[in-house]
Amino acid sequence: MAKTSIVSLVTFFQLIFTLINSCSARNGATAKFYDVTKYGAVGNGKADNSKQFLRAWEDACQWNGNSVMVIPKGIYMLNPVKFTGPCRGFIAVRINGDLKASTDISVESWITFKYVDRLLVDGGGTIDGQGAAVWSRANCIHNHRVCRPLPISMGFYFVTNSKIKNLNMINSKGVHLKLYRCQKVVIREIKITAPENSPNTDGISIAVSQDIKVRHCNIACGDDCINMLTGNKNVEIFNVACGPGHGISVGSLGHSLGESTEVTGLHVKNCSLRGTTNGLRIKTWAPSGPGLVSNFLYEDIHMQNADNPIIIDQQYCPSGDCNNQAQSSIQVKNVTFRNIWGQSSTPVAVKFQCSKKVPCYDFKLQNINLAYNGREGILKSQCMNVHGQFYGQQQPRGGEANVVSSGTGEGVLSVSSELVWGDVGEDWFNAVAEGWGPGSAVWDDLDTSNNLMLPSNCSFGNVQNQESHNSDPQDNIFSTHSSPSYPKGVYSIWDFKGFL
Predict the structure, then answer these.
(1) DSSP states along 322-380
(2) Contact present, 203 and 162 (Cβ < 8 Å)
């Protein structure tokens, strides 16, 4: 009886083992490896290996199961290549060696992955675009409307359910890594390095893609560390170190006047920006086609001597030859900045230059703590055509607001204390735009003899039609239909308490 039980138990475990092996085989758990050197690739830094790489890819892609294309240690010269799917199973490209690009600038992308599902690209190797040889031929800096960008180092087009990780990318001719029409892609542990003065060498560029996650990347380049273009939805950027570079940017948007633009669902968290020319930036052209930018959350961001730490620029014109009276038609709304701290290297720490045609709406600022590390005056913020609220700590703190005329019919309320929002100044009050007078919020200064007025399309908080704040009967906030003129000067602002 005992012997029969032992035999039955052994038979049971044999059956389980057989079933596990059967399932593993059926699901392709055992990968087949395709070493590029077996196809004739030579890692001597001289011979072109594009044909050998493509043959290895084609065999790996056609394997009916899991496959791994292996690039061993060595230096592999590579002309432009396109790794195209669909493939029959999961496919990995393991880059252990270093890849060096040719000087060919006739293509959009040097290394292209297209129409692939369940792709893994990793290995710890280096992708060297050798951009220094051709950066002098970049013309997009001077002509953004009509230009031919230099080649992308690594482009992913129509790629889904995939991961790109553990790579070093250096000196791309143009953008280092681009996603276009991708879905459910994770980018993590990518190190990108290019000189600060290298033109248009964005780190990661994302366009017309959905459910993208960027994690634990270190990016130093000559343009945007991460750039989000039109058509993106649900993008997460966590634990990214940026700098030097142009910051984490959305846009530029509205470049093509006849096309609509939409970017929704961006979450940027636990990132640091060091020595960047911008921090967190949204940029749209004016004029532009219609569009929407919405549902953005920036939180727990550390600025280390960043220029323009928080900036919305809806008059984006890098060439400087645009019509400054034109307005963007792209609405920016439901944007939150939370726990932004560190140092600004420019006196304007927060700048919202929104469209007069479609003002920014539903902006929230919570716990902004920025200090100015420079000698060009006091730290200040500027605002045009934005509605919203702020909460919690707002730094720098103090008690003076300086009304400065811009000389163009609009002014700036700059502060050495709180982040203050509004367009004020003698010239502005004498040239109030239609519809800005009625319903505008009015501030009293301490001596109650003069009022500071904020235009109704540039207000923060529930300030309209209020009779008082902080229970001070002398400092009233009320609606007005008049636009009195006030002299430029320094006004004491007693206590905002996140009021605007």
Answers:
(1) S-TT----EEEEEEEEEEEEEEESSSEEEEEE--SSS-EEEEEEEEEEEEE-SSSS--E
(2) no
Q: Is the pLDDT of residue 488 over 90?
A: no
Annotation marks residue 216 as catalytic: no
- Distance separating alpha carbons of residues 343 and 459, to the nearest angstrom: 26
Choice among 142, 144, 176, 246 that is catalytic: 246
Residue 162: other Cβ atoms inside 10 A? 22
Mean per-residue pLDDT for 420-424? 35
Count CA within 13 A, CB hemisphere, residue 99: 30
- Tell me phi and psi for residue 60, to 5 degrees: -65, -40
d(CA 4, CA 335): 71
CA distance 354 to 191: 34
- Reported as a single tens digit per residue, the pLDDT across 32-52 is 999 999 999 999 999 999 999
Most confident of 12-21, 185-194, 367-376, 419-428: 185-194
DSSP code at position 433: P
- Show Cβ contacts of residue 146 under 8 Å, excluding neighbours closer than 6 positions: none
pLDDT at 143: 60
Q: What does the DSSP assignment read for 128-157?
A: E--GGGTGGG--TTT-SSS--PPPEEEEEE
Residues 6+ apart with CB under 8 A from 21: none
Instruction: Look at the block and give the residue holding tokens 């001289």.
Output: 46
Strand 233-242 versus strand 248-253 pairing type: unpaired
> 208 by DSSP, 3-state: which?
coil
Beta strands 451-454; 441-444: pairing state: antiparallel
